[in-house]
Amino acid sequence: MDARDNHYHPQAIEPALQAEWDSANAYCASEDATKPKFYCVSMLPYPSGKLHMGHVRNYTISDVMSRQLRMRGFNVLHPMGWDAFGLPAENAAMKNNVPPAKWTYENIAYMKKQCKAMGWGLDWSREVATCDPAYYKWNQWFFLKMLEKGIAYRKTGVVNWDPVDMTVLANEQVIDGKGWRSGAPVEKREIPMYYLRITDYADELLANLDKMDGWPSEVRLMQKNWIGKSVGAEIHFPYDEDSIGKSGVLKVFSTRPDTLYGATFMAVAAEHPLALQAAQHNAGLTAFIEECKKGGVTEAEMATQEKKGMPTGLFCLHPLTQKKLPIWVGNYVLMGYGEGAVMGVPAHDERDFAFAKKYELRIQQVVSWPQREIPPSPPLSKGGAESGGFADQWQDWYSDDGVAIASEDFTGLTTAQFKEKVGAVLSAIDLGGPRTTFRLRDWGVSRQRYWGTPVPIIHCADCGPVPVPYADLPVVLPEDCVPDGSGNPLNKRDDFLKCACPKCSKPARRETDTLDTFVDSSLYFMRYASAGAPTMVDARNDYWNPMDQYIGGISHAILHLLYARFWTKVMRDMDLLKYDEPFTKLLTQGMVLNHIYLRKNDKGGIDYHAPDSVEAKHDEHGKVAGYVSKLDGKPVEYNGVGTMSKSKLNGVDPQEIVDKYGADSARLFVMFAAPPELTIEWSDAGVEGANRFLNRVWRFVSGVTDVKATFDWKSSDATNQSPVDSGWTPQAVPEGDRDRLKRDLSNIRNARLELHKTLSQATFDYGRAQYNTVVSACMKMLNTLEKVPTDSPAGVALRAEGTSILLRTLYPVTPHITTALWRQVGYEKLHGSLLDAPWPEVAADALQQDEIELVLQINGKTRGKVTVPSKATREEVEELVRADETVLKYVGDATIKKVIVVPGRLVNVVI
RNA sequence: GCCCGGAUGGUGAAAUUGGUAGACACAAGGGACUUAAAAUCCCUCGACCCUCACCGGUCGUACCGGUUCGAUUCCGGUUCCGGGCACCA
User: Fold this and answer.
1) For A838, which DSSP code?
2) Which of A338, A345, A743, A836 has its CA 20 to 30 A from that of A811?
3) Å from A676 (CA) to B85 (C1')?
């Protein structure tokens, strides 16, 4: 770091600075009531082995934000932890025959080293790993609290069952309806599990979304749709002993109770009690119900499968007409949603329409629309097409609101009026009434897996499931098990399994299910804030939270964020914290993708080629015409972009980039490539460009001298020391080019205007976290400063002013190089560390202009520019424009209809 | 299937949210420096037309249509790509 050395060596400056920050605890935050706080968190990573580019992007975004706001005077907390439980550790354990714990802790150690090498200013004193008993004790503690309050409860739930490996499979482990290891067709199976009553909070989770203006609107909309509030009616269809063998009602929920008279059949889920009852004496139906159990449990799979049904032979009565309606079993009816049964209204519901067409069920129109009519079609070949229109093809408007027809007393009512009235009518005859439902389902937290937080329950033959006493927490997970793919290895561990019932002290069996990892990630940001607290949270939690800024992948838009919101509300209701929503602002970052190249081999298989082994061939216009392998020169096929993965050979190891170009170059590129929300496609060429820019910064700042004498940027009257007033006159500019004259940056005033305009843009863009244009602003600053002449005091002064601005503006993105230069130039001795340097201010005098250029449009087409005094009023501008040569030329004999003046921007003359 | 996004030069993108489309870069091409290379610096760079050249013109933000003096931006429709769908995290 010799001041005269003209070369930038990241390998020399980066590790040294990192060690310095480390030993000075430069990023350890403490609660300080004298400053505004800023709590900034990137979603904690899963310790998969090495950092990937997505992590680099995520933590660089939060680091840039944290560093900039610290300069703006905030007390910043930027902590880090590890989402250490989960499936991948079990898979790695099976593959390598090592316990998940060992694998996980080794990964954490390595990745932590990598984090430090990236120069992220993280407060490691608050680090958590969710697999640490001291951490998951609080999962267990709060689970028991929720059990006490009735928020956690036990009921059966449906899981994927691999009948060969005799194990529960995650959705990810079901491929094309088959177990990923056994290849056996997967079945649905019902088992007892614990659930959390998130649906009790559905209304608040929904209502608050409107107020959460720090969240992207699309995320709020996704959550709103996910919660899925539907207002409608519950309708009871009675049945009696004659038709079913016992009397009762078949309950359904409908958002369109106004189509009640159009119900021509009922459909129930395969697991519905009536379906099971009917199947007892019906072998065909039994087989059909068995068939419905095949396949996985995901909604996507359910929704895309072919809609099938079978009549149960049972009937119920229409609550208002007393007509008999056949009850069918339909594979598209979900037991988990509503009542597990629906009324079929084929004329006004697309799904029912398709079902009715397939099984030739009656279609009865009960809504009409002015100027629209469902075209009648021929009667059915079989079944009872008695009346009503019957269209061949579903039209979207069949489900539109309209006016009721063929609906007895309701006929003539609008859809809204009908809905309003029908609830009361149903209530009066005790066959239903108005009702609101949610799509949201309670949160199933039991996992039949080893590597997770043990559910703190003991099963006693006499007492049933008994909570582990609080004093016995945490229930510690044995860390030396190696799963083998055939169920939870805890079931083979007597030292874990065998215990005494806390109630009756008889021998009992410990629960071997573990908690969903979404539980871990619902409280980690509170444990950061209350690091080391002997309670779940302490007063420090209410200092730091609610979090000011949360940053993570858009892929977490629903589940994680919704669960964490719910968890916070439950804690609030137990008086553990004082706020309603955990995340004030949310930034959802895009993914980092890379190109995929492949070649089909002789056997019909696919060989992938690493992007850096592929070369693009260009045609004469510079357009890419094709790709060849650098290894054999033969063509390869381009297969678009995708997430980085080992199998596609398109992963980029951030470590290689750090080793080659340094962390600052990697950080700069990742920030420059795209705004945080957008997907990035990786490009090595871009990293080199970033590195070249940093080299230029190094060379430029190394050439700046006399920073102390000529310009004291920190002095309060800095704006009065405008270099323009310091006696230097602009050099002559070649004749003939007015535009060029205006933009000539060897003119000190122009250059300083440009510098401060750019600073103003950079500051604005920091505020909206658009870091790609922040980097671009820094590049513009350097471009400007490099053109400033060195042969005048004003030029020297401007270069000094510019250097102090550039280093501070660039610092949050590339802290190493800027800190090194800050010292080299001598600012650290003068003004202290860059860590807490004040954010540069835009000098008002630099932005003053006597004349400004407005864009001139004639009829909305750009026809040139007009120069007007910057203080000109709208009327004065209009007057100037009416006299402008260009305007006169275009107007000719025509008359000017009006002149639109957009102050400071443009003038549009309408002819 | 349902919900939410996205699409701008050869490439990544910008346009402070209705006001000059392509800032800032990457790649490419040309030039300077150099014995040479690297590094560095300078110039050109959306398409088409006119022109010796300058000047100038037309088109152009996935596609079709609309609102507006003016649309990458707002509205309706279409196509393709990405994310989520409750046990990947």
Assistant:
1) P
2) A743
3) 25
d(CA A879, CA A864): 17
How is residue A64 written in tokens?
Answer: 């840039």
The residues of A between 189 and 228 with beta carbon within 7 Å of nucleic strand B are: 193, 217-219, 221-222, 225-226
Q: Is the pLDDT of residue A142 over 80?
A: yes
pLDDT of residue A354: 85
CA distance A852 to A906: 11
Instruction: For Cα atoms A280, A282, A287, give the angle at the middle one, nearest 5 degrees.
Output: 95
Q: How crowded is residue A865: how many other Cβ atoms within 10 Å of its Cβ? A: 17
User: Which nucleotides of chain B are near protein (any atom < 7 Å from a CB)?
Assistant: 1-5, 10-17, 19-21, 23-29, 39-42, 47, 56-58, 69-71, 81-89
Distance A275 CA to B71 C1' (A): 57
Residue numbers in A 221-260, CB below 7 Å of strand B:
221-222, 225-226
pLDDT of A405 above 70? yes
First to last CA, chain A: 65
Q: Quickly give A789 CA vs B44 C1' distance in Å.
A: 26
Three-class SS of residue A888?
A: helix
Please give the model's pTM, rounded to 2 decimal places.
0.90
Write the single-letter amino acid at A206. L
Q: pLDDT for A114-139, tens place per residue?
A: 999 999 999 999 999 999 999 999 99
Q: In the predicted model, is pLDDT for residue A856 greater than 90?
A: no
Q: How far is the CA of A794 from the C1' of B50 (A)?
A: 47
Q: Which residue from A251, A310, A235 is spatially nearest to A275, judged by alpha carbons?
A: A310
Distance of A737 CA from B26 C1′ (whole Å) = 30
